[in-house]
Amino acid sequence: MSLTDFLKSADSIRDIIAGYRQFDFASAMPRTRGSPFWRYFRGVKEVFTERGETASAIFTNVIRCAAETQGAGQGYSLWSIDENIRRTYLDWQKGLLTAELRALAPTLIVFVSGPYYDDYLTEEFEGLEMTAVEPFDERVLSRLRAPGLGDVPAYRTYHPGYLNRVKRFGFGTLEAAIRDAEK
Amino acid sequence: MLAEIYESYRRAQTAQLLEVSNTFFVPLLVQEPEDWRAAKNRIAFIGQETLDWKFGAEDASMYNYEWNCPD
User: Per-residue DSSP letters for A103-168?
Assistant: First the structure.
């Protein structure tokens, strides 16, 4: 399905949402479930459940649509396409993430987008301020504040694949974020 | 409420967007898990881009990741 299909079919929302729920953090996909990405997410939930607290998690992405540049049915980064097309797309998705977060009312937001996607965050969240969370520098772990994020503790750290590769970070940035949120 | 938000974006289609929309795959849209509203801790993770969700041994070697799942 392309973005065109989504735009033209009223049923597309129902179908995509059903697929999202069915995916359920790759619960039925052993190979995918073992990736650093999904292990990281389950690990965060475990931090809370091990304390005897209930926890639920949801995931989404800064960029919602993959680019289809080769006609081969494979998704490519938004960086791989013409700047004007990229701009048209970004104008369309602007505000979507803010609206979703408002509707979802999370108690903790963790951007695992890494510093290379900060420009997108700045565009989405007007007045965004980033502050390093000790002992890490701003690129590794930042607290985010913006009107669009409300009072919800929000952080930005690296992608789990990178955190896993750089062993000195591992799960440490997330633990530091949780400690900071609970201050 | 999420469905209403998504519907508003689906309808917000400009001629300019329709000209290029075949350049993109369908968007990632979310739905709360059943335990979301009742949970004391509700964590929203936001990643980079929606490319694909596959992961295999070839990805593991790229990430220098210890791979324990059978292919």
Answer: HH--SEEEE-S-GGGHHHHHHHSTT-EEEE-TTS-TTTEEEEE-GGGTTS-EEEE--HHHHHHSTT
| Interchain pair B40, A54: CB under 8 A | yes
A23: left (phi over 0), alpha (psi -120 to 50) or beta: alpha
Residue of chain B whose Cα is closest to the Cα of A90: B17
pLDDT of residue A7: 93
Tell me the two tokens of residue A66: 């993959």
* Nearest CB to B49; choose among A13, A41, A61: A61
Give chain A's residues under pLDDT 50. none
Give the residue from chain A lying closest to B34, CA to CA: A56
pLDDT band at B7 (very low <50, low <70, confident <90, very high): very high
Contact assignment for B45 to A104 by CB distance below 8 Å: no
- The ipTM of this complex is 0.90
**Backbone dihedral angles phi then psi of residue A10, each to the nearest 5 degrees:** -70, -25
Q: How distant is the Cα of B6 from the closest Cα of chain A, in angstroms?
A: 7
pLDDT the model gives residue B68: 43
Residue A42, class by beta-carbon neighbours within 10 Å (0-12 exposed, 13-18 middle, 19+ buried)?
A: middle
